[in-house]
Amino acid sequence: MKLSHSPASPYVRKVMVVLHETGQLDDVELVPTATTPIAPSAELIGKNPLGKIPALERDDGPTLFDSRVICAFLDARANAGLYGSGARHWEIRTLEALGDGILDAALSLTYEARFRPEDKRVPDWMEGQWGKAARACAALDRMWMSHLAGPFDAGQIAVACALGYLDFRHAARDWRKDNPALAEWYARIESRPSLAATRPADPR
């Protein structure tokens, strides 16, 4: 299998964490891929018409995307149980969606600053994006700590990667300030080998 990959992508990082956790790193070739919403990679578009990473090419089926699909596929392939069963399965799925929602909002902020000229940026829109991330962090701190304290799963992977991305690109906004329980959990979980091995380099 081949994974369209960029070490700075938080969505790719989710997949890489799952590969580490499920012992499948040696089954996947990492294909360095540079792509943006303005200048998508032509090679990537041939695999994923949306022009987004990650995309997982398989030998026995169509290319898979997005990160949630790929993570679920890899979990099922290894029978690793990262998505649980019964009622917990739906909690994990919801938690993963919440983590990905933080990423969606934070990445929108990153793109706004990187690709839109400063005089054309809309501050209210940017604050609206941060508001999504801030509300999600508050909900995690208030409602999800018992789940986050439980067995490591795909929902926790998504949340950890989302918080790591906030540190990576938006550290000045300080998500920890109003979320002490969440900050304490993240301080413990970020040293887990799969997360430590996939931590992005200095933001540039």
UniProtKB/TrEMBL annotation:
| Annotated ranges, domain GST N-terminal | 1-82
A Pfam match = GST_N_2
| Coiled coil ranges | none
Entries under InterPro entries matching the protein: Glutathione-S-Trfase_C_sf (IPR036282), Glutathione_S-Trfase_N (IPR004045), Thioredoxin-like_sf (IPR036249)
Q: Output this protein's name.
A: Glutathione S-transferase
Q: What is the lineage of its organism?
A: Bacteria, Pseudomonadati, Pseudomonadota, Alphaproteobacteria, Rhodobacterales
